[in-house]
Amino acid sequence: MESSKRLQQPLLSAQQIGDLAEEVSHLAGSLPRNLRPSEALRQGEQTSRFMGAGLEYEESRPYQLGDEIRRINWRLMARTGQAYTKLFQEERQENWFILVDQRQSMRFGTQTRLKAEQALRVAGYYLWMAQQSSIPVEGARLAEDLQPTPTFEGRGTFEHLMEIFSQPCPPQALSRQEPRLNDVLLELTQRIQPGSRVILISDFHDADAQTTTILTALQQTTQVKAVLIEDAAERDLPMAEGMQLQSVATSEVFRLHGIQQVQQYHLWAENYFQTLQKRLKQSGALVTRLLTHDSLSKLAQRGEVADG
After folding, report:
1. CB-count burial class (<10 Å; 0-12, 13-18, 19+) for 198
2. Residue 226: which of 306, 162, 158 has the closest Cα?
3. Neighbours of 264 (CB within 10 A)
4. % of the chain with per-residue pLDDT over 90
5. Is the dihedral of CA 40, 41, 46, 50 positive or negative?
6. Least confident segment among 10-24, 86-100, 172-186
7. Of the candidates 96, 133, 119, which has an alpha carbon nearest to the alpha carbon of residue 230?
8. Which DSSP letter does residue 134 get?
9. How many CA atoms lie within 13 A of 245 on its CB side?
10. 173 falls in which pLDDT band (50, 70, 90)?
11. What are phi and psi of 152, to 5 degrees?
């Protein structure tokens, strides 16, 4: 099969990665401020809501024993007759964590490209933005296991991480159990720094009620963005006799007899995807849906605003 041959090669070649860099350089805009306080020392040009001894004046509070004399607000003291200490916004920055799902359900596509390829292009969009803002980025490939990447910052972030993410997908192995999304998310909650921006790129095929609970907890200390990757055929099968569907999980084949069964599948699929999006949004995550044939310009148009 053509898709199998494609999976034996890097998802994106060096030339395609270069072309993607050119594409996203015209699309990527500025991100809204991350309101989660960061615990990472600042090295770039970002700020976060953390009070301390930085350079940007924030406010003054009444003087307390032990405050440095050089931080007394003399002008305010002259007006009020009371001593006040200047507080400054400490120079901290956020980190990004990008998870790219390349499990077996992502190795499917009927229009333009595989879901795994589109997920990789989405990762490239955010990596370019991070590189332009000198934001430290750590990533992870989710395939037969979770494969974390080193942390990159500044020049080379896009190229290095795209090369890692573009490695050929492992061969189909129905006998081997893949990591469950919930187990991966629980692991990430232990390693991601508070104040980070977490970008999850997946079809979320195994998301359930527990996923909502885990993401809700993660959302309390980080800003979570979920990009839901779909293929058009997953919702709208061709109206044809003798349609066959094969389960990615079990390899079982289901035969749809007649147009009525195809219509029943359409109803099931619509309910499935509505429930899936609802679960993701209930956690407070920002959710964007992207089809395999969609342009990345849709990410730029929607920005960080949740959509349906």
Report:
1. buried
2. 306
3. 12
4. 47
5. positive
6. 86-100
7. 119
8. T
9. 16
10. low
11. -120, 155
Rg (CA), the chain: 23
Task: Please identify which residue in the block is written with the tokens 């002008």.
Answer: 75
For residue 226, the cross-strand partners are 200, 287
d(CA 70, CA 91): 19
In the block, tokens 């494609």 appear at 6
Which segments within 144-196 are labelled E, that is strand?
146-148
Mean pLDDT value across residues 233-243: 71
Its pTM stands at: 0.76
pLDDT tens digits along 153-166: 989 999 999 999 99
Count of CB atoms situated within 10 Å of the CB of 27: 16
Reduce the DSSP state of residue 227 to 3 states and report it. strand
Distance CA 54, CA 39 (A): 14
Task: List CB contacts of 115: < 8 A, sequence separation 6 or more.
Answer: 105, 106, 107, 108, 109, 203, 229, 230, 231, 292
**What is the C-alpha separation between 241 and 261, in angstroms, rounded?**
10
Burial of 260 per CB tally in 10 Å (0-12, 13-18, 19+): exposed
| Closest alpha carbon to 59 in 42, 44, 76, 39 | 76
Angle (nearest 5°) at CA 222 between 142 and 52: 135
Please report, for residues 34, 118, 164, the alpha-carbon distance to residue 146 in angstroms, rounded to integers and kept in the order given.
26, 19, 13
